[in-house]
Amino acid sequence: MLETISDWLQSTWLSHAFISQGLWAWPMSESLHFIGLCLLVGSVGLVDLRMLGMAKGISVSALHKLIPFGVAGYLLNVITGSLFVVGDADQYIFNDAFRFKMLFMFIAGINVLFFYSTAFQQTKLLGPNDEMPLPVKIMAGVSLACWIGIICAGRLITFYRP
After folding, report:
1. What's residue 11's pLDDT?
2. Cα(49)–Cα(64) distance, rounded to whole angstroms?
3. Angle at 99 between CA 97 and CA 105, to 5 degrees
4. What is d(CA 60, CA 139) in angstroms, rounded to the nearest whole number?
């Protein structure tokens, strides 16, 4: 079944367009992917670290203003990452590092949904120097661990090509 999906992806017009662009499409997408990653981890990572107890002089609500940059970075990474998968499906679909990256992304997504549905309202009311509740610290730790896992697994994709 995975071979069928891979063959179909590589036969799409998007795959042909992406690959046929030769020298520029892949490196430009890699650069944009890295910029998206910087926006994402730079903003979400700061919020996670604050919730874990660092930079206590800054309120979470002040740092939360950076989250739109993280969302923009995430969207940029989804777009460029999808181009990579469509452009060279075999390199990704049959790659264990890619599967781990997707697993970490899934866990991070569930974690952020859980945070915003359960703890965000309470957390944003806390001021500078306030201690975060233990469940919030756990969610921040899971988030940070997932993003580190996503970065590591993403780097390993090129080393474990099928």
Report:
1. 64
2. 12
3. 105
4. 14
The 8-class DSSP code of residue 64 comes to: G
Return the percentage of the chain with pLDDT > 90, whole number: 59
Q: What range defines the domain where residue 46 resides?
A: 2-160
pTM recorded for the entire structure: 0.85
| pLDDT above 90 (res 157) | yes
At position 98, the amino acid (one-letter code) is F
In this structure, is the dihedral angle defined by the CA atoms of residues 52, 54, 60 and 63, taken in order, positive or negative? negative
102-154 per-position pLDDT tens digit: 999 999 999 999 999 999 998 988 888 888 999 999 999 999 999 999 999 99
Q: Looking at the 3D structure of the chain, how many domains does it have?
A: 1
Radius of gyration for the alpha carbons in the chain, expressed in angstroms and rounded: 18
Q: Does residue 97 contact residue 157 with C-beta atoms inside 8 Å?
A: yes
Q: If DSSP codes are grouped into helix, strand and coil, which group holds residue 109? A: helix
DSSP-derived 3-state class of residue 125: coil
Q: Is the dihedral of CA 131, 133, 136, 142 positive or negative?
A: positive
Q: Among candidates 37, 32, 63, 38, which has minimal Cα distance to 132? A: 63
Q: Which two tokens stand for residue 55?
A: 């930079």
